[in-house]
């Protein structure tokens, strides 16, 4: 259904859709049809659906060709572009852009509720939703409890989000977003980032705009627990790349952040809670990286050292502030850089998203097996045959004990 049409000089002018849904697909033949249907079955219908298949090799493209809905524009790449979505954003004409992955699902009212919120809150840049986690078979991975699901977060201020990102990392579900098109395009895209492109984007977004989270599970985010096919799967190559990209993000985390928002976000973590001069705030940024950056150990030291080289080492006033107000000298910095050991894999935090989800999945499988075993034991122990044969089992136990003693 298109938005209301206007009559002018006997010509019908069709207004552009309010929402542009974009999806890049690659080798998701088993899931992509269900994903597409979850978009087409939205209660909010005023959208275009731009799909780009990234040269799939498993027949995903043929599944996409099987859809004839007039809202769909399907593109088929002749080579793999690693999910290049930026040109899809440029193609879009909607006021808002929604992003979905080709193996994830939306509940029917997702777009309706998000559009209603953004239309009534013009100062809000983007609207996310809570997300439930499912496996390859569509089974729930973990309960949608605030303590158990990384993607069920409360709403926070810009300052609170920035502090969370800095100390704990990403917790926003990419395929749950609805964002204003002009703002998304204005954020740009660093194609060098593969693991953490979303996280980098959220940091940039929150430096300048507020966001909102709908506290309803309107997105089903699929985790490939067996094949580890997700980009964020915990394999050595991805872990190393994640560390490298986190280091790059740490270098620019404070860039473009106003002093007012910086103080609001991080003052509770300052070494000097009264810091306010430009020199003092630079010192605090250095110490924040050293003390609180999300990845600890050697990467934390390296991130702090890189910031120091770039922002502090050549500034006499900053060096004087470090020495006189913080008791931190160049000799202390040399000791820091002399202690960095680049055993990168040892610095991967235990709470990374992929490891967390795998641990929860394994725990639930073990709990399920335990429950089955307890149920089987209960059924056996309460059965009539088990009760009737109890005297015979006691007699056999007695004979075994006495037989053992006679042998000794």
From TrEMBL:
InterPro entries: Glyco_trans_2-like, Glycosyltransf_2, Nucleotide-diphossugar_trans
Statement: the UniProt record of this protein carries the keyword Glycosyltransferase: yes
Domain Glycosyltransferase 2-like: 20-184
SUPFAM superfamilies linked to this entry: Nucleotide-diphospho-sugar transferases
Pfam families: Glycos_transf_2
Gene Ontology MF: a single term: glycosyltransferase activity
The UniProt record lists the keyword rRNA processing: no
Coiled-coil segments on the chain, per record: 356-383
Family the entry assigns: Belongs to the glycosyltransferase 2 family.
Protein name (Swiss-Prot/TrEMBL): Glycosyltransferase 2-like domain-containing protein
